[in-house]
Amino acid sequence: MSLINPVTQYPSDPKKQKQPAPGLAEDLAPAADHGEGSYVGSAKLVGRRALVTGADSGIGRAVAIAFAREGADVALNYLPVEQSDADDVVAAVSESGRKIVQLPADLTDEATARKVVTDAVEQLGGLDLLVLVAGKQQAVEDLADITSEQFDQTYKTNVYAMFWMIQEALPHLPAGSAIINTSSVQAYSPSPHLVDYASTKGAINTFSKALAQQLAPKGIRVNVVAPGPVWTPLQVTGGQPTEALDSFGEDTPLGRMGQPAEMAAAYVYLASPESSYVVGETLNLNGGMPTP
Ligand code: NAD
Ligand code: MG
User: Rounded to an integer, what distance in angstroms lies between the CA atom of residue 162 and that of residue 136?
Assistant: First the structure.
C-alpha cells in the first residue's frame, strides 16, 4: 500500500459562494467528500441503533454513511428543507442493507426535539448511539449586530437541543451505549466574528465532561469530536464571511481545509467498544491546530 500524504490527500480549492442557511450539500462547489465512494465498513457497529442529527450533509452525512456501513441501523434527523440531501444519504447507504429512518424536524423547539428521540427509539426498536452533529453558525463582525433572535437560535440549536435530546434518550439507553457531541476548535481558539457560536462549543465541551462522569458508572460513555475547518454547507451559508472562503483552512498546519469524510472514523471509534476506556474525551480533528 502506498503512503498517503495528508497535506495533498485532498485538494484545497474552496471557492467564494453564498447559499441561504441551512444550505445544501448538493449545491456546494467544489463538492464535499462524505466517504460515499470510499468508506468501507468492517462490522464495528453491527446491530447498533443510532440517531444522528445534522445527518443530511457535511460531517453528519459522513457519520451516517460510516455507521450504516459498519452495520448500524440509523435514524437521520435534519431540517425539512434539507430533504433532497437526506435522500442522497439514504441512496448512499442503500447497499448496506441496514434500516435507515428519516426524521426531519427543527430541533430549536423542545417538544419537537424530544419527539425526534422517541420516534427514533420507536422506529429503530431501541437506541444505543446518540450522535449530535446539528449546529448553527452565523458570522457577525460586531457584537452590537448579533440579534437576540440569532443568539437564541444558536444556543437552542447547539446547546439546548443537546440537553433536551440527551435527557429524553437516557431512559432508553442501555449500558454499552455511547453519546457523541460535536464541538469545534472554536471552543479553544474562538474567531472574533463567532462570539455566540464559539461560546456554544465551549459549553458543549464542558457539558460533556461533566455528564461523562455522571453516566460512566451506568456504562454510558459521553465523548466529543471537535473538528477544525471542514468543507460543508455550514461555512457557505454565513458561517464564514464570504470573502474569507477562498482561503478556508489554509491557516492550519496541514495548510488545507478538511473533508467530512476525514471526520467519520473518529465517531465510529467513539461509538464502538474499541474506545471502551475513553470517557469525557474531546478528539480534535483540525489539521494540527494546538488545543489544550
Ligand atoms: P452542515 O451544514 O452540513 O450540518 C449542520 C446541520 O445542522 C444541517 O445539515 C442541519 O441539518 C442541522 N441543523 C441546523 N439547524 C437545525 C435545526 N434548527 N434543527 C435541526 N437541525 C438543524 O455543516 P457541518 O459543518 O457538517 O456541521 C456539523 C457540525 O459540525 C456542527 O455542529 C458544527 O458546529 C460542527 N463543526 C463544523 C465545522 C466546519 O468547519 N464545518 C468545524 C467545527 C465544528
Ligand atoms: Mg444540511
Answer: 13
CATH number, position 86:
3.40.50.720
| Cβ neighbours, 10 Å, residue 92 | 20
Amino acid at 7: V
Q: Compute, in angstroms, the gap from residue 277 CA to the centroid of ligand 2.
A: 32
Beta bridge partner(s), residue 282: 224
Query: Which ligand is located closest to the Cα atom of residue 14?
Result: 1
Kindly report, residue by residue over 27-74, the tens digit of the pLDDT. Answer: 999 999 999 999 999 999 999 999 999 999 999 999 999 999 999 999
Is residue 4 situated within a structural domain?
A: no
Q: Distance (Å, rounded) from C-alpha 248 to C-alpha 251?
A: 8
Please write the tens of the pLDDT for every residue from 87-136: 999 999 999 999 999 999 999 999 999 999 999 999 999 999 999 999 99
- Would 127 be classed as within a structural domain? yes
Cell of 185: 476548535
pLDDT for res 120: 99
Residue 258 near ligand 1, beta carbon < 6 Å: no
Strand spans (E) along the chain: 49-52, 73-78, 100-104, 129-132, 178-182, 221-227, 282-285
Domain count across the chain: 1
Say if 240 falls within a structural domain. yes
Least Cα distance to 52 among 171, 181, 211, 220 occurs for 181
Residue 68: give the domain boundaries: 42-285
80: in domain: yes
- Residue with CA nearest ligand 1 atom 23: 234
